[in-house]
Write a structure and sequence with these properties.
It catalyses: N(2)-acetyl-L-ornithine + 2-oxoglutarate = N-acetyl-L-glutamate 5-semialdehyde + L-glutamate; N-succinyl-(2S,6S)-2,6-diaminopimelate + 2-oxoglutarate = (S)-2-succinylamino-6-oxoheptanedioate + L-glutamate. Belongs to the class-III pyridoxal-phosphate-dependent aminotransferase family. ArgD subfamily. It is found in: Cytoplasm. Keywords: Amino-acid biosynthesis, Aminotransferase, Arginine biosynthesis, Cytoplasm, Lysine biosynthesis, Pyridoxal phosphate, Transferase. The protein is built from 14 helices and 17 strands. It has 404 residues and is an alpha/beta fold. It folds into two domains: 151 residues, Aspartate Aminotransferase, domain 1, CATH 3.90.1150; 229 residues, Type I PLP-dependent aspartate aminotransferase-like (Major domain) (Aspartate Aminotransferase, domain 2, 3-Layer(aba) Sandwich). The chain has a seven-stranded mixed sheet, with helices on both faces. It has a four-stranded mixed sheet with strand order 1-2-3-15. The longest helix is centred in the C-terminal third of the chain and has 25 residues. Pyridoxal-5'-phosphate binds next to helix 5.
């Protein structure tokens, strides 16, 4: 059979792909640093970073070299063997964090799925079988597998998929009393994003996180930080929890971890990990040598003073430019987030216009994301050049001039 002839354009999307996304009208075909080009050769400045993934921009020469070198050695071997890149990467993650054991998977959802399973298994084995309650927060996001979407705090993502896993409760973000009301001896874990990403770039307060740590200690519950979006340099430290000076029991990473190559990790302590045994959990691709070799390089590059301190410098330039824009158009209510995870909260009267604003920006050649309700999200490369930032902000200004 010869495959049917189709035009490789946005119009073909609906005939080919499950209708769960609404991609932009143009199709990117090439990227370099913080710029991407579409099929027509039009160039865009990328503040989306593939949703906080391409932290070193597109086609980084060192990552390309690593990919090419490792691809000539070994792509995949499965977990019936271990491999050098996985061991080296695990060693680095352990050296730089609170953790002493690592599980590798392929997406944020899978890392969280492993975290929730570990928390329940640990508490069921160590304490009693009824200690399986997970507390999470409204508006949180932990991925799209059925367990993670049920733990997530947006029922629109978990309704109509049949009976949900039991033993999951939701509290109000940054409201410690709402947690105190539902936590008890049967709670096995509290899971939280230190900055709610998909929920609208909403940071947790330091006092809230400290109180969660104390509650977890009091009730023998595990504290899980979902740093899928905030980890690996995004906020100017390798992990966001370092800013809070509170350590979790379990940490999950994905997005930036592979710089664009799919990989995720769940980190925990030796004590908690020791409850698991051979065959209790697993994945075919997890710890794949190709992914781990790239991730190792991503960490080598990001975990340097130059890149990490550059995050704050780039943020300052972005804020400066955004203030100029807001002086002219007066449409931002607030700019929030940390490091290069930035949420621009629109004034109420502009919230409905957010997709117009994004589309006008595309037309001018600059790419942003949204988050939550009425929030423009920026999660660009951590090594974005100043000229790219300034040019991108100029294009944003022109886009707004056209539609406002
Ligand atoms: C993106 C994200 C996830 C899900 O990651 P996937 O790789 O899409 O499965 C989970 N948690 C947080 C905080 C995220 O931002």
């Amino acid at each position: 059979m010869i495959s049917k002839k189709i035009l490789i354009t946005r119009d073909s999307f609906n005939q080919l792909i499950l209708p769960i996304y609404n991609p932009a009208d143009f199709i990117p075909i090439k990227g370099k640093g913080s710029r991407i080009w579409d099929q027509k050769g039009k160039e865009y400045i990328d503040f989306s970073g593939g949703i906080a993934v391409t932290s070193l921009g597109h086609a980084h020469p060192i990552l390309n070299k690593t990919l090419s070198q490792q691809s000539k050695k070994l792509w995949h071997i499965s977990n019936i063997f271990t491999n050098e890149p996985a061991l080296r990467l695990a060693n680095k993650l352990i050296s730089y964090s609170f953790a002493s054991r690592v599980f590798f998977a392929n997406s944020g959802a899978e890392a969280n799925e492993a975290a929730f399973k570990l928390a329940r298994y640990y508490s069921s084995k160590k304490y009693h079988i009824k200690k399986n309650k997970i507390i999470s927060f409204y508006n949180s996001f932990h991925g799209r597998t059925f367990f993670t979407v049920s733990v997530g705090g947006q029922s629109k993502y978990s309704d109509f998929f049949g009976p949900k896993p039991a033993g999951i409760m939701h509290a109000v973000f940054n409201d410690i009393n709402s947690v105190k009301k539902i936590i008890d001896e049967n709670t096995c874990a509290i899971v939280i994003e230190l900055i709610q990403g998909e929920g609208g770039i909403v940071p947790a307060t330091v006092s809230f996180i400290k109180e969660l740590r104390e509650l977890c200690n009091k009730y023998n519950a595990l504290l899980i930080f979902d740093e899928v979006q905030t980890g690996i340099g995004r906020t100017g430290k390798l992990f966001l929890y370092e800013h809070y000076k509170v350590k979790p029991d379990i940490l999950t990473l994905a997005k930036s971890l592979g710089g664009g190559f799919p990989i995720s990790a769940m980190l925990t302590t030796k004590k908690i990990a020791s409850i698991m045994n051979v065959g209790i959990h697993g994945t075919t691709y997890g710890g794949n040598p190709l992914a781990c070799a790239i991730s190792e390089k991503v960490i080598d590059i990001i975990n340097t003073k130059k890149v990490l301190s550059g995050v704050e410098k780039k943020l300052k330039i972005i804020i400066f430019e955004l203030n100029i824009i807001n002086k002219r158009f007066n449409l931002f209510k607030e700019i929030r987030g940390k490091g290069l995870l930035i949420g621009i909260v629109l004034k109420t009267q502009y919230i409905k216009k957010i997709s117009n604003i994004l589309n006008a920006s595309f037309l001018e050649g600059v790419i942003f994301l949204t988050a939550g309700n009425g929030v423009i999200r920026l999660a660009p490369s951590l090594i974005m050049r100043k000229i790219d930032i300034i040019e991108g902000m100029r294009r944003f200004y022109r886009a707004l001039e056209k539609i406002l």
